[in-house]
Amino acid sequence: MIISLASGKGGTGKTTVAVNLALSLSNRHVQLLDCDVEEPNSHLFLNPVIQETKSAYTLVPTVNYELCDFCGKCALACEYNALVVVPKQEVMVFPGLCHGCGLCSLVCPRSAISEQPREIGVIKKGTSGDGSIALVYGLLNIGEIMATPLIDQVKAEIDPAKTVIIDVPPGTACPVIAAVQGSDYCILVTEPTPFGLYDLTLAVAVLRVLKLPFGVVINKAGVGDRKVYEYCAAERIPILLEIPHDKRIARSYSEGVLFIKELPEWRERFAALMGRIEEEYER
User: Fold this and answer.
1) pLDDT class for 9, splitting at 50, 70, 90?
2) Region 91-113: what's the mean pLDDT?
3) CA separation (Å) from 256 to 20, 66, 139, 141, 152?
4) How distant, in Å, are the alpha carbons of 31, 140, 170, 219, 255 from that of 244?
């Protein structure tokens, strides 16, 4: 089963839920994928032993000017405006805009375009310090503007024999869609504040377009107001778990310690969360 953890808003505790849930499933084989490749931080809580680090690449076009006649068909075909043809002078390639789809090379009538790999980041694979969780995370190079190609390559490491938990980037843009697609269930982590509610509604709209089953975990319960609860009730969205606004939890997070280690009663609650997810998924 593949479970993704998303949040329309950053800083809601998505990673906290992901790593605590993963560590609570000691009776299963668990793989945690951190697809928040611009700022991965799941590994900070797991003290992993990294067994493999490999570069991640995307393909970008290069032009053979001995063949190119500057017809411009490559630029017309590229919906990302990654190529601009200056008549009889140059084909300008903007690697940061290129999605590596290869369409420009396919439409070139003179086979003047080929694709060359360009490094965009690294993928690290290992296991948590206690050996219970297989961890994969990507780290995007500074200056790269597209996270999606790296997210796709991190997800290519999914082990279907394991219970897979995906830590999704915040927001509702392309990286989020790339990370949640293919999941069996999505947990939306939010907080009971006006900001939390606004971003939750955006995330819900995305998941409904994608037709993914989902439920909500409310973090920092006790702060803010009841609007998130009222919204979930009106939209018939199940609230799977509430995590209280507790100084002990906040202190554990700031010290890089999973709070189920400080508050062991929460291990059972996260394990029960998994049972609730399976019930919701089978409906």
Assistant:
1) confident
2) 94
3) 12, 57, 19, 24, 28
4) 27, 33, 21, 6, 18
- Dihedral sign, Cα of residue 245, residue 226, residue 194, residue 197: positive
CA torsion sign, 125 to 166 to 173 to 12?
negative
Residue with tokens 């919906």: 79
Q: List the structure tokens of 22.
A: 């993963």
More confident residue, 258 or 212: 212
Q: Which two tokens stand for residue 84?
A: 């601009």
CA 50 vs. chain centroid, Å, equals 20
Which residues, other chains included, contact 253 with Cβ-Cβ below 8 Å and sequence gap of 6+? 16, 259
167 contacts 14 by C-beta, under 8 angstroms: yes
Please write the tens of the pLDDT for every residue from 45-95: 999 999 999 999 999 999 999 999 999 999 999 999 999 999 989 999 998
β-pairing, 30-34 with 2-6?
Answer: unpaired
Q: How far apart are CA 184 and CA 196, in angstroms?
A: 24
CA dihedral 183, 185, 191, 192 (to 10 degrees): 140
Cα–Cα distance measured from residue 102 to residue 87, given in angstroms and rounded to the nearest whole number: 22
**pTM greater than the 0.85 cutoff:** yes
Q: How far apart are CA 13 and CA 53, in angstroms?
A: 27
Burial zone of 132 (CB within 10 Å; 0-12 exposed, 13-18 middle, 19+ buried): middle
